[in-house]
C-alpha cells in the first residue's frame, strides 16, 4: 500500500497519489431502450463489429415475463483489436433482474465506464485501496467474454466505473476466444502472479480446445462499396478511437472530487455553458477523456432526459471522413446538430449525431494534446470554429493527427 512517510504509492517504481494510473478509456457499456435498433445503428451505420453475444434464452423466444422487451441479448462490439469497445444490454431486461435498483434504474443508461490501467498489479492494489477509502465497490475478478482483469466501483451518481488490465485482442481472423476457455474466469480478486496468455493458450491446446471456434461477425448483408482513403468499406469513415465521455451529474463538486482524488483524473480546463460549469478532465495527453456538467444543463441544451450520458465521442480517422460521415448518417435519417463550442474545448470541428435511443454521439477528428506542462492551448491560439461552417479543407494545427494512433488495418 502507501509507502511509509510519503503518503504515495509505488506504481511500477514511480511514487503516485493512487496505486494505479489510468491510461485511456477502454470501453463503454450502454443499457438500451430499443436494443435491436441500437445494435443496427452502432454496427451497420457506425461500423462496430459484433464480437460475442450473450443470449440469456439460448436462442429461444423471450419467456412470458420478458415478453415485449424486445431483444434481450447482450452484445460485445469492437472497432479495433480490443475485444470490446462498446457493450450493449437491454435496459428493461436488466432492470427486471435488479428489482432493488442497485445498478439499473430509469435515467441511468450506463452499464459501465471502463478505464485501462497499466498492469494487473495496479488493478489489484487499486481495488484494495479504493475499498479501504470507502468507495462503493461492486465486484472484482476477471470477466468473460473479454478476459480483462478488473474491479468495478460506482461514482457518486451510481455510474459504474471499471479499472482493468489485459483485455483480449482480436486478430486478423476476427475470431474471439472460444467460450470453452472461459474456465479462466474469476469472480474474486486474484492471487498474484497469474499465468500469462501464452501459457493459457498452451493449456487450451492441451485440453483439445479448437482455437478457431470462437464467434466471428457476419457482415455479408453490407456492401463494401465505399473507397475510404484507399480501403473498401460499407461506410465512408472509420472510427479510430472511442471517447471522450460526457456525464451529467447531480453534484459536480462531489463528482470532480471522486474522479480526481479517487481515480486520478487531471482537470485540463473549465468552461461555462448556459450559465453552468463544464469541466474537462484527462488521464493521458488528450485534452479530455471525460467531461462533467451539472444535470441542470441537460434541458438547457435540449438533450434527452432519459440518460445521464451527455455524449459519447467517436474519433474518426480524418476531417474529410467526418464531413462524409455526417452526410452519410443524415441521409439515412439520423439527426445531427452542433452544440455550443464551450461543450467541446480542444476538439476543433465536431458534431452530435443522435442514436435510436436519443443519446448524443459526438463525432470529431481532432483532439488537442496536452504536454508535460499540463497547459491547454490558449483560446486565442485555437481555431475559431463557427457552428454551421464546415470548410472543405482546414489549415493544419501544430498537433493535427497527433495523439494515440489506431493500430492495424481498417476493417
Ligand atoms: Fe468491462
Small ligands present: fe (ii) ion
- Strand arrangement within the widest β-sheet reads 4-5-6-3-7-10-9-8
Percent of residues in helices comes to 10-25%
Poorly predicted sequence stretches spanning 5 or more consecutive residues: none
H/E series: EEEHEEEHEHEEEHEEEHEEEHEHEEE
Q: What would you say the CATH architecture of the largest domain is?
A: Roll
Alpha-carbon Rg, integer: 21 Å
Query: What general form does the structure show?
Result: globular
Strands, count: 20
What does it look like?
By secondary structure, this protein is α+β, with helices and mostly antiparallel strands. It has two domains: 9-222, 2,3-Dihydroxybiphenyl 1,2-Dioxygenase, domain 1 (Roll), CATH 3.10.180; 235-381, Roll (2,3-Dihydroxybiphenyl 1,2-Dioxygenase, domain 1), CATH 3.10.180.10. It is built from seven helices and 20 strands. It has an eight-stranded mixed sheet. It is globular. It starts with 8 loop residues before the first strand and ends in a 47-residue tail after the last strand. The structure holds fe (ii) ion.
Amino acid at each position: 500500500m502507501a509507502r511509509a512517510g510519503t503518503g504515495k504509492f509505488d506504481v511500477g517504481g514511480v511514487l503516485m497519489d493512487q496505486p494505479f494510473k489510468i491510461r485511456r478509456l477502454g470501453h463503454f457499456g450502454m443499457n438500451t431502450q430499443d436494443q435491436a435498433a441500437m445494435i443496427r445503428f452502432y454496427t451497420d451505420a457506425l461500423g462496430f463489429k459484433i464480437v460475442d453475444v450473450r443470449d440469456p434464452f439460448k436462442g429461444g423466444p423471450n419467456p412470458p415475463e420478458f415478453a415485449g422487451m424486445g431483444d434481450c441479448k447482450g452484445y460485445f462490439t469492437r472497432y479495433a483489436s480490443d475485444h470490446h469497445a462498446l457493450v450493449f444490454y437491454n435496459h428493461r431486461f436488466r432492470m427486471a433482474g435488479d428489482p432493488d435498483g442497485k445498478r439499473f434504474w430509469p435515467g441511468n443508461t450506463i452499464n459501465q465506464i471502463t478505464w485501462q490501467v497499466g498492469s494487473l498489479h495496479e488493478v489489484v492494489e487499486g481495488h484494495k485501496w479504493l475499498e479501504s477509502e470507502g468507495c462503493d465497490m461492486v465486484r472484482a475478478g476477471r470477466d468473460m467474454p473479454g478476459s480483462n482483469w478488473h474491479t468495478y466501483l460506482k461514482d457518486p451518481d451510481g455510474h459504474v466505473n471499471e479499472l482493468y488490465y489485459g483485455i483480449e485482442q482480436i486478430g486478423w481472423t476476427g475470431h474471439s476466444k472460444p467460450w470453452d476457455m472461459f474456465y479462466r474466469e474469476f469472480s474474486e480478486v486474484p492471487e498474484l502472479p497469474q499465468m500469462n496468455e501464452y501459457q493459457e493458450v498452451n493449456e487450451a491446446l492441451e485440453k483439445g480446445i479448437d482455437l478457431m471456434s470462437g464467434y466471428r461477425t457476419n457482415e455479408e448483408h453490407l456492401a463494401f462499396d465505399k473507397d475510404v482513403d484507399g480501403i473498401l468499406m460499407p461506410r465512408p469513415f472509420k472510427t479510430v478511437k472511442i471517447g471522450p465521455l460526457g456525464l451529467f451529474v447531480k453534484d459536480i463538486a462531489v463528482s470532480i472530487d471522486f474522479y480526481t482524488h479517487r481515480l486520478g483524473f487531471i482537470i485540463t480546463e473549465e468552461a461555462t455553458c448556459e450559465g453552468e460549469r463544464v469541466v474537462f478532465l484527462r488521464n493521458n495527453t488528450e485534452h479530455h477523456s471525460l467531461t462533467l456538467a451539472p444535470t441542470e444543463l441537460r434541458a438547457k441544451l435540449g438533450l434527452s432526459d432519459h440518460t445521464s450520458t451527455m455524449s459519447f465521442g467517436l474519433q474518426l480517422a480524418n476531417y474529410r471522413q467526418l464531413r462524409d460521415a455526417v452526410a452519410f448518417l443524415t441521409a439515412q435519417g439520423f439527426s445531427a446538430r452542433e452544440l455550443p463550442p464551450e461543450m467541446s474545448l480542444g476538439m476543433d470541428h465536431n458534431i452530435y449525431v443522435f442514436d435510436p435511443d436519443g443519446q448524443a454521439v459526438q463525432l470529431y477528428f481532432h483532439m488537442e494534446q496536452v504536454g508535460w506542462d499540463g497547459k491547454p492551448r490558449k483560446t486565442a491560439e485555437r481555431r475559431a470554429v463557427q457552428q454551421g461552417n464546415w470548410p472543405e479543407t482546414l489549415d493544419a494545427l501544430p498537433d493535427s493527427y497527433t495523439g494515440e494512433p489506431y493500430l492495424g488495418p481498417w476493417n
